[in-house]
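Protocol step 4 of 5: obtain the predicted structure for the target chain.
Materials: sequence only (see below). No template structures provided, no constraints applied. The aim of this step is simply to have a reference model before the mutagenesis design in step 5. Sequence pasted as it appears in the construct record:
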Amino acid sequence: MNKINKLLLILVSIVLLFNVSGCSSSSVNNTQKPKEKVAKKNNDTINEEIKIENPDFRNTKWGMTKDEVKKYEKAELFFEDDSTLIYSVSVKDLDTTLTYRFNNDGQLYDTSYVFEEKHENKNLYIDDYKLILNSLNKKFKQENKLIDGFSWINNMYKDNPDKYGLAISLRHLFVKHIWDTQNTEIYQSLSGINNGIIHTVQYISKNINAPKK
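Step 4 output (structure tokens):
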């Protein structure tokens, strides 16, 4: 996929993520400077990575500026504009696009993973989803079951699990799971787009406002 097409897919994904979450947060403008500690990589005192205490997402905290996120996020920066930072990362050995979003005050309020793996067998997207679902369940100490996140819009393939991937691509089936922490709401979703499938995980701050529309 060339860079232009990848950026177009990312922009479409961002629109879908906001539709999935459908929620807003209250405004908090006073954010504390994160406490730092240095973690050495492979005992190499030259190549040191700064870690923050109690991060909200990866190695960042809600309310950070773009410059702060760029300081703490060590993945490959793919794209940048006034309100967005986009990185190429690997999550559970899956090629993934990581996006950080900033509001009108320049504060980090929202992040997302878009999983870029492509499969001819559409049921393999469900396998990827289960892999990430299990990881999130372990991280947030919950036991969400795959089937509990199923929402059927059209029951044509409901009795045929071998066609569930096809059903998702046709928008007959939508899959969504939610986790909740003190500062963050997390949404994982699997949905159809242009007869394909998009797999995303979105993290939304509870305390930092999204940009006003």
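Step 4 remarks: Residues 22-31, 38-48 have pLDDT under 50 and may be disordered. Residues 19 and 198 are 13 Å apart (CA to CA).
Proceed to step 5.
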